[in-house]
Target: GCN5-related N-acetyltransferase
Amino acid sequence: MSSLTFRLLQAADTPAFAVLLAGYSHALSHAETAPAVDPERARALLDDPAVEILGAFEADQLLAFALFMDIPEAISGRRACQIDDLFVDPAARGRGLAQAVVEEIARLGAERDWMQVRWIVPADNTVARRTYQRFSEQAPWVNHVIWLDPTQRW
Model:
């Protein structure tokens, strides 16, 4: 991983991001067939002012991404980070990329004076949960959801 670099994704990254985004959607939806690569959806995320997307690159190849938000933290009165999505290309797994992405976001957070970086992990993703337990602690809360679109559940 010596040639691994990180940067916030930009419009020029849309094609590569769209491919990983389709893989991420397929992995979480548990659908039998993979969704089509959708550059418009990828571009909409890249253009959304509420989020930032960090990419992990080896040479010019996008291997992983994390979508995160800089949010107010009510208890401390400071800022925090909420990672909402993190995905590593299956061909690049087993190399510590998920940890490297989170650590890069934490480094960015230290520069921004965030008080914490937090994220959610699907309960059935035992591999990811074991990975995160190696370098972070489990948060003392449980997530809940109300599905407003019954056709989109994962």
User: Anything to note?
Assistant: The radius of gyration is 16 Å. The longest strand covers residues 61-72.
